[in-house]
Design a protein that fits this description.
Layout (H helix, E strand, L loop, with lengths): L1 E8 L8 E7 L8 E6 L2 E11 L14 E2 L8 H13 L4 H5 L13 H4 L3 E6 L1 H10 L5 H12 L3 E2 H7 L3 H10 L3 E6 L23 H11 L5 E7 L5 H15 L4 E5 L6 H11 L8 E4 L5 H12 L5 E4 L11 E7 L16 H12 L2 E6 L4 H8 L4 E5 L11 E6 H6 L10 H13 L2 E5 L8 E4 L16 E3 L4 E3 L6 E3 L12 E4 L3 H11 L5 E4 L9 H10 L5 E4 L12 E6 L13 H13 L10 E6 L5 H7 L3 H15 L6 E9 L2 H16 L8 E2 L3 E8 L2 E10 L2 H17 L5 E6 L5
Parallel strand pairs: 9-14, 9-15, 10-12, 10-13, 11-12, 13-14, 16-26, 17-24, 17-25, 23-24, 25-26
Antiparallel strand pairs: 1-2, 1-4, 3-4, 3-5, 6-7, 6-8, 18-22, 19-20, 20-21, 27-30, 27-31, 28-30, 29-30
């Protein structure tokens, strides 16, 4: 038995590897998971180096306790990707690599049974129809188990036991009834996904000339090739993705594809489209990866990708760090979406990591959007990305919707009545669509019933006791809720300051609009989709299914309904309260608003029905609305980029944000001032601009006060060098509860 030493990455803030002694007849490979002692704890780490000697004194070296043999090592390419992310985003390698793995892999006690053959249960066709009616109405736990079976393609026995204490006995009884079938799945099978020879080839739609050119360019790409697919809403970007992937997967039988979407609620329709198109592949060849999956299902899907069995991986931002040893193409749909930027822990951009990963592997990456981010548009202007344009909708008789601005000030001057913020022209248009049997969509990016509850006698406004923010009124739940910390209370009967019983909601949220529409448009079936109505697993998919089935006349919602969805019957879009973003302190606010309005406008008129968009505004002469009316993204992007260049803002400079959290605002600001003083001593800081420390917009959250310090430079290399030298100095400072450093921040 020979003695070797391994250097292990642990999920720890220190940016270093930890040496351990490993007694083994065969040294473990780089990329293998191991269980090691760390202080008084036993933790899982990832081997990054195997060496013959260690610089650590022998008496301080500790032994590796356990080596994971059930999961093959991650590849060197994957470790290099994690190392790049750690270096660029100023984190330890272990802080990137370990959280990117499924939770069950980070628990050594579960390794032995993790990917062993397991019993899985699947509903039979008879069970899908008979089981719901056979269960007693009050059998909540049994209904929960039945719903889990219906939601999942197959349910592992371990996951079933977590839902019901007698799950296995119940499932055996259901199997006897013919409602459930039992399968034994060997998750450790490392074969490529099977091809089903008898699967019929789906009928393919005819491509437009622009679509055909885009598909050909992507298929013919040699090595790393970044494409910016700029297609108007409804232009068939998804069809381009499908054709490009089909060509690449057919050329290489073992190739894998990664498709990223910004939000979980978009994965079902993408998965349905990919399964229909790639029906010849085994069901396990297409998997999803996102935070909404049960832990067991997420681990199995990750393992299928890691072993190469999954040919296509659909996921949200966390999927960009999935292990894909045969990755041949990456697609980032709605690449402009802020949801691709992680806002906690490792604050990475999934879009940017996707581009780096494609470059690292020498494969094409496709960034698709009707409203590309200004950073990507500028890269295309510089020739670094190849721009592919889809200027027309894919359906022959589907034109872009007309946009009409409703001047709220003019409506008021003319004495035209509105109903709870809904103007007369908008209500009339909704009634007309109802009479025609068409669907309408009303967009308001503010959930809840009203953003404030106030007393007009003394001026009291309901605020959160833990945050420097107002609480939001949620009328159906009869609650006041803070959207920052989750604090909740009952609605008071009277003003707590003066006793006035006539307290009233101020402003409007989606709940209030839903209530108003029920009375303003009699006979309309109104449905609300937002974060409150889709809290339960599977609820969003069920609600969207109702919309597609034509069981809804007016859909009310937030940004959840604004992008990616193909509503075939929607001919009218109404936009409420868009003006709030026009004069924001955030320089990106106008870009986000324009993208949001372009995306939600694109839900109208997709299947040949004439589409119309009505935007209620008090500023109808604003340049942003004029560009929206012309569907002129190019003009808006070029004008905004010129403003950014003159103001020395991204993408023409590079930024980093130091945040501090303290028990008092003074403590947080004092820490940042010390940090700025330390930064001034770094030689590379001469090319970096440091701004004054300021409080965050929401200063206090959960009794913790927050402040920020912005640094920027015209040179990315100079900024990165400064941040690397700054990190150890920051660790030596005291006085705050927490601090974090974010590279390329989106929210400042």
């Amino acid at each position: 038995m020979s003695e070797v030493f391994v250097r292990v990455a642990l999920d720890h803030p220190l940016p270093t590897l930890f040496d351990y002694r490993c007694d083994s007849s065969e040294p473990p490979a780089v990329g293998t998971l191991v269980s090691v002692p760390f202080g008084k704890r036993h933790v899982v780490g990832l081997i990054c180096e195997v060496v013959a000697h260690s610089d650590v004194p022998a008496e301080r070296l500790r032994n590796v306790e356990k080596v994971c043999t059930t999961c093959p090592p991650v590849s060197e390419h994957w470790l290099a990707l994690a190392a790049f992310a750690a270096d660029y985003y100023q984190r330890g390698l272990g802080e990137v690599a370990l959280p990117a793995l499924p939770q069950s892999l980070r628990d050594a006690s579960r390794w032995a049974r993790l990917f062993a053959p397991q019993e899985h249960y699947r509903l039979t066709p008879e069970g899908r129809t008979a089981l719901p009616d056979a269960l007693p109405a009050r059998a909540t736990a049994l209904r929960k188990l039945a719903q889990a079976l219906a939601d999942a393609d197959c349910l592992a026995g371990a996951d079933a036991r977590a839902l019901h204490p007698k799950a296995l006995a119940t499932l055996d009884a259901w199997q006897t009834q013919g409602w459930v079938m039992l399968e034994v799945i060997d998750a450790a099978a490392v074969t490529a996904a099977a091809v089903l020879p008898d699967a019929p080839a789906p009928a393919l739609p005819t491509l437009t000339g622009e679509q055909a050119d885009a598909v050909e360019a992507i298929r013919d790409a040699d090595g790393f090739a970044p494409f910016l697919l700029h297609g108007v809403t409804g232009s068939g970007k998804t069809e381009v993705y499908l054709r490009a992937l089909a060509g690449i997967l057919a050329a290489r039988p073992d190739a894998q594809a990664l498709v990223l979407v910004p939000e979980i609620n978009l994965t079902p329709q993408f998965e349905a489209a990919f399964r229909a198109r790639f029906a010849a592949l085994d069901a396990s060849a297409i998997v999803t990866l996102h935070s909404g999956l049960a832990e067991g299902e997420r681990a199995r899907n990750w393992f299928a990708a890691h072993t190469g069995r999954a040919r296509i991986v659909l996921g949200t931002r966390l999927a960009v760090l999935a292990s894909l040893p045969k990755l041949a193409i990456i697609v980032v749909d709605e690449e402009h979406d802020p949801a691709y930027k992680q806002q906690e822990g490792l604050r990475y951009s999934a879009r940017d990591l996707a581009i780096y990963r494609a470059k690292q592997l020498g494969v094409p990456v496709v960034l698709g959007s009707a409203t590309p981010s200004l950073e990507s548009w500028w890269q295309a202007d510089q020739g670094r990305y190849k721009r592919l344009t889809l200027s027309r909708r894919a359906v022959a008789d589907a034109a872009l919707p007309s946009v009409r601005l409703i001047d709220l000030e003019d409506e008021r001057r003319r004495g035209r009545a509105s109903i709870e913020g809904l103007s007369g022209p908008l209500i009339a248009a909704l009634k007309t669509r109802l009479e025609r049997g068409e669907q309408s969509l009303v967009f308001l990016n503010r959930r809840g019933y009203a953003p404030q509850l106030a007393c007009d006698a003394c001026g009291w406004v309901a605020g959160c006791p833990r945050c420097s923010a107002y609480v939001v009124l949620h009328k159906p739940e009869r609650a006041l809720r803070c959207h920052h910390c989750g604090w909740e209370s009952r609605i008071p009967r009277s003003c707590p300051e003066c006793g006035n019983v006539d307290i009233a909601p101020l402003g409007r949220g989606t709940q209030r609009v839903e209530e108003t529409l029920a009375g303003a448009v009699p006979g309309a079936r109104v449905l609300r989709i937002d974060a409150d109505s889709t809290r339960r697993k599977g609820s969003a998919q069920a609600l969207f299914s109702d919309v597609h089935a034509g069981e809804v006349d007016i859909l009310v919602g937030t940004q959840m309904i604004a992008k990616g969805h193909d509503f075939r019957r929607v001919s009218l879009v109404g936009v409420l309260n868009a003006d709030t973003a026009l004069f924001s302190h955030d320089f990106r606010a106008s870009e986000r608003l324009f993208a949001q309005l372009m995306q939600v406008s694109g839900r109208a008129g997709r299947a040949g029905l004439p589409g119309e968009v009505l935007v209620q505004t008090r500023y109808p002469r604003h340049a942003l609305y004029h560009a929206l009316g012309r569907h002129d993204y190019v003009g808006f992007a070029n004008a905004t980029l010129a403003e950014r260049r003159d103001a020395h803002l991204p993408p023409f400079v590079y930024q980093a944000l130091l945040r501090a959290e303290g028990r008092t605002l003074e403590a947080a600001l004092a820490f940042l001032q010390q940090a700025a003083a330390e930064l001034a001593q770094i030689p590379a800081a001469g090319r970096v601009t440091v701004y004054d420390a300021v409080p965050l917009t929401i200063v206090k959250v959960m009794h913790v006060h927050r402040a920020q310090l912005l640094v920027e430079s015209a040179s990315r290399a100079a900024l990165q060098a400064t941040l690397r030298a700054w990190q150890p100095l920051l660790r030596a400072l005291k006085g705050v509860l927490r601090w974090s450093l974010e590279v390329d921040p989106l929210d400042i």
